[in-house]
Amino acid sequence: MTTIIDIPVRPLVEYVYRSGSIESGFRVAQTMQEGTRIHKQVQEGYGEEGEKEVHLRIEIPLRDLLFRIEGRCDGLWTDEAGLLTVDEIKSTSITAEDIGDGREVHWAQAQMYGHILAEQRELEQVRIQLTYVHKSSGKETKLERIRTRQELQRFAMDTLEQYAPYAEMLAEHRRRRNASIEGLPFPFAGYRSGQRQFAGAVYKTIGEQVNLFAEAPTGTGKTISTLFPAIKSIGNERAERLMYITAKTVTRANAEDALQRMQQNGLHLHGVTITAKDKVCFCTAEGGSGREDCAYTNGYYDRINEAILDMLTHETLMNRDVIERYAQKHTVCPFELSLDASYASDAVICDYNYVFDPRVSLKRMTDDQRKSTVLLVDEAHNLVDRGRNMFSAQLNKAAFLDLKRDYQHRSEPLSKIAGAINAYFIRLRKQIGEEQMISRSEAPEDIFKLLEEFTIRAETTLLEQGDSGETEQLLETYFAVQAFLRIGRLYDMESHITYVEQDGSEVILRMFCIDPSLQLRQTAKGYRSVIHFSATLSPIRYYRDMLGAAEDDYNISIPSPFSKEQLEVRIVPLSTRYRDRERTRQELAELLAQLVNERQGNYLAFFPSYQYMRDVLEAFEALEPDTDILVQQSSMAEEERDRFLEAFQPHNERTLTGFAVMGGIFSEGVDLAGDRLTGVIIVGVGLPQIGPERELIREHFSRGGHSGYNYAYVYPGMNKVLQAGGRLIRTEQDHGLLMLVDDRFLQNPYAQLLPPEWKD
């Protein structure tokens, strides 16, 4: 039986011919930014007879494999002697002397295009040309080789022979995967209330290639209700892969556990978890000073193919521990290993960033791969503010003033351009005058040319001086400028606003994404289906608006599987408005003290801010309540978070009261089932603090005919309330007290937003 392997030219030749070390990140970022402009610059010289961006495709059989290879050639033309030239254009930061004979992987890409053309047009010879363009000077370096049709045939077959073991491993895995999915049972004894309906909606949505917005309360089993039908869709070839994306590490662990459970029931599937670079990289963890002297990145591409083949042959579920073990075995960077493994895996568990953030998304994923991928967006309510952050960018004046001074004698061109940008900020400060902030709907295009010049000068300096501690500030500013230019290209006047803010001598220029729906919708269009799910997607119209729903996308709301009798709800009409907090602080402290003294157990009290929490805590401790106290800090290491949660044990000898903030690390994704949590106290309605950006959001949606105040404040605030309250009842056996402290819980719109099981 012939196995079909669909593969683009570039990943094929990169697998076989890529070699050497991982390059510094700034080179990659610059290449992506400059690529389109440089291609156009070279292609304009082809003349009328030249062909640009030519799509090529060929089928090549090899043993039991049929390779269907396709790609896009940068340029073609035929000279007076009738010889066809295939041109591959590459932007570069290095000099012509350093380019030498060119990189083997670049020659391989051009030669594969040459092979396809020689076969299709029956050519006896083809000229292969590499055109390197220096990004700062624009100088072109052309290298060429003439290859016969037979030479190109041998090259193509040799390339496929080297790729074949990897392709055969993936093909065999795919057969085992689909067979295992066909007989895979639901991994629990039965479905919970509403769970079958939820899973069915996910399966139907994937089949129809639309999107779903699902509100499924705590206890529904959201993780398995989305993963199981998505995996069944892969087995039925409705999809080829899935990405389970989350906002928090703890929910990633839930997805890993669900895959592990299905594996125990016979599932054979490659799943990889991508852990943040700063947590997993060996470069810094083992005392190294970065990639320049890191044994795991130096020569990475000489070892990665063997590492990937080894890991995918012997492992299925590849979490952090598994990836680190193979990274040590093959001396490769664990973070980069997880990224490379993700392109070959059936399931990827990762942060939102790897899909939506234009700075760090998985850019080597092809359009065809996206079209066959299902996105499972866990805790989708978080994607609203995360989307705003991902599609916003800012620059600060101080960074450029510092660089102007620091490089005055080390790099005059860099100092000069930094000084020009600093002067631009001074002009902005004069425009602000006595105001604290000014805004406009247009992008700040008058600074883009300066910033593009800055990236060129900065890159030249970084190449000369290396990625060292002395260039840390330059590198940081370089990345900030790259991000600013990238968002500038995405800027849309319907969803962005530019504002300038003054803070003493500092001037901040920010492109702020008020409404992320356009960018989120455009990203989602590339995928087969996107399943947004959360315990708190209410009101659904708001989340459909903010997450970019199309008219034909589905909604589903699953009722709570728990009975009202499990939850005792008390509403205490005590004002926690900012203006009343000092007046009601003592009364609130006495209320909390009375509760924990009367009923032994474990309590979590959630506050709208750290300062308010500390103020009430001070009054609470003065009453000397009979309880142990834990307090959330503004920054806690992973070990500190674990100790905080581990203290909530079911049979503590003394009452335990935890003080935490709404929207923080303990108010979402935390599972304290059974007697580990007796009661939750929610202080206030969670409204975000009034500030310039929130006011811009309010004004924007008010102009659009919505309730701007609700969009900017009420809905995000009440989401925090609902998430915090969801920590209490986690299983059918749980019982507990939920105390809502604020008179606004008895008023609309706040009362309307409370879930049915919280209302009497």
From TrEMBL:
What PANTHER family does the annotation carry? DNA REPAIR DEAD HELICASE RAD3/XP-D SUBFAMILY MEMBER, REGULATOR OF TELOMERE ELONGATION HELICASE 1
The similarity comment for this entry is: Belongs to the helicase family. DinG subfamily.
What keywords sit in the KW lines? 4Fe-4S, ATP-binding, DNA damage, DNA repair, DNA-binding, Helicase, Hydrolase, Iron, Iron-sulfur, Isomerase, Metal-binding, Nucleotide-binding
Q: Which domain of life is it from?
A: Bacteria
Pfam assignment, any one: Helicase_C_2
Q: Which Gene3D superfamilies does the record associate with it?
A: 1.10.275.40, 3.90.320.10, Bacterial XPD DNA helicase, FeS cluster domain, P-loop containing nucleotide triphosphate hydrolases
What name is this protein filed under? Rad3-related DNA helicase
Cite the Helicase ATP-binding domain residue spans from the record: 181-440
GO MF terms on file? helicase activity
Is ATP-binding one of the keywords?
yes
